[in-house]
């Protein structure tokens, strides 16, 4: 919190300097650190001071998450002066907040403490039950989601289970898998090193499904990053192709290193139909009007990824959201010029904020009458819509937003 750096980065630097820690130590340290961020809204309210406060925060978070190292949990509680205090495990945000308020009176704990105050006003309207469900999801780590690539999913599940991995088929997409919640060394898995398995959150997989690329089409992934969605688009095309012409993907980003990583992943998967075109200025890095489909997965506040990155709740401020819409609209406007007449434009973010999502999409449509909204089916709710928020509680995933437009002939 003092440096403003992500917890992942700080932890990686710590482990690099402290190589004495074995795998069990690393697991304990990592899980403890991220638990502190998940429950920081309550942990910072404990009626303790000095070292007792620090140990109390550790004990509280370990109890809420039911960590298995009971001797360490007991030692932390003792140092906090809580030898006789039975801290609760997590039930629901409201029920657990009530339990803590009774145990640690006169301090009052509330479910809303678990996210910063600026968060709620930036979301679409939610009723009490929806807020409770969202908070519950933010307090629990999602599973590791993946895709089978260039092989049958059932075979991938069988191969992974033979390695002791808790793999199962996801009910939503024909290539999606859950790999459980335990840490996995991917480099020890042949399916991964051979490009047959890609780690991709289920909410992120929604975006490629909404794009719905057809074999033989040309698609531009305008904000590709390290290429997860470019690989998904290529895989979807290949799965549906009946000839050698699966289609073409061009991936762009402003970061050269990200595009290098994309190239490695594409070669590992054997996708020769992915090429790169780096953004070097405001000018399009591709030809205008030349693509059947364009995906704009825009830079955003990433509030939809708070389950995996709980430190971001407390490191960011409202400006993480309010600073983005102007940039997002500008990128969407410029990228839209690459869509041919009759082609598809898809706008996506991993944010839950209205200002970055529906507001940007509606502002774009208002300024570009040559594009019209196009319906698709929300994969988790089954509703027909032209814009959809994927909430973390719907399918045990991250959060995303996606909108689909069609350019008029």
From TrEMBL:
GO molecular function: RNA binding; rRNA (cytosine-C5-)-methyltransferase activity
Domain SAM-dependent MTase RsmB/NOP-type: 132-408
Kinase recorded as keyword: no
Residues the entry annotates as binding S-adenosyl-L-methionine: 253, 297
Pfam families reported for this sequence: Methyltr_RsmB-F (PF01189)
This protein's GO CC annotations: cytosol
This protein's name: RsmB/NOP family class I SAM-dependent RNA methyltransferase
Record organism: Shewanella cyperi
Lineage of source species: Bacteria, Pseudomonadati, Pseudomonadota, Gammaproteobacteria, Alteromonadales
């Amino acid at each position: 919190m003092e440096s403003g750096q992500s917890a992942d980065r700080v932890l990686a630097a710590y482990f690099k300097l402290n190589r004495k820690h074995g795998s069990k130590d690393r697991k304990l340290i990592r899980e403890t650190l991220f638990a502190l961020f998940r429950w920081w809204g309550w942990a910072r309210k404990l009626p303790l001071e000095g070292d007792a406060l620090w140990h109390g925060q550790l004990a509280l978070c370990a109890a809420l998450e039911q960590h298995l190292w009971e001797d360490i949990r007991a030692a932390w509680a003792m140092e906090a002066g809580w030898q006789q205090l039975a801290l609760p495990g997590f039930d629901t945000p409201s029920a657990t907040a009530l339990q803590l308020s009774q145990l640690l009176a006169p301090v009052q704990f509330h479910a809303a403490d678990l996210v910063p105050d600026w968060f709620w006003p930036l979301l679409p309207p939610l009723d009490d039950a929806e807020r409770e469900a969202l908070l519950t999801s933010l307090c629990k780590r999602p599973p590791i989601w993946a895709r089978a690539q260039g092989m049958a999913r059932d075979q991938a599940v069988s191969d992974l289970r033979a390695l002791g991995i808790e793999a199962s088929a996801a009910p939503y997409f024909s290539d999606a898998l859950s790999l459980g919640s335990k840490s996995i060394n991917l480099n020890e898995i042949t399916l991964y090193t051979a490009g047959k398995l890609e780690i991709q959150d289920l909410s992120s997989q929604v975006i490629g499904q909404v794009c719905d690329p057809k074999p033989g089409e040309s698609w531009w992934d305008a904000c590709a990053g390290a290429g997860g969605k470019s690989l998904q688009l290529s895989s979807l095309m290949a799965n549906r192709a009946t000839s050698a012409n699966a289609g073409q993907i061009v991936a762009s980003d402003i970061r050269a290193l990200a595009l290098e990583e994309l190239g490695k992943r594409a070669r590992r998967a054997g996708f020769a139909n992915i090429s790169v075109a780096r953004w070097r200025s405001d000018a399009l890095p591709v030809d205008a009007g030349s693509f059947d489909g364009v995906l704009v997965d825009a830079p955003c506040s990433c509030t939809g990824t708070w389950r995996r990155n709980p430190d971001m709740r407390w490191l960011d401020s409202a400006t993480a959201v309010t600073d983005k819409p102007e940039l997002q609209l500008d990128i969407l406007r410029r990228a839209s010029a690459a869509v041919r007449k009759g082609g598809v434009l898809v706008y996506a973010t991993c944010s839950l904020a209205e200002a970055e999502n529906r507001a940007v999409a509606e502002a774009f449509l208002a300024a570009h009458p040559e594009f019209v909204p196009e319906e698709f089916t929300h994969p988790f709710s089954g509703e027909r819509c032209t814009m959809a928020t994927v909430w973390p509680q719907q399918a045990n995933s991250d959060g995303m937003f996606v909108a689909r437009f069609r350019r008029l002939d």
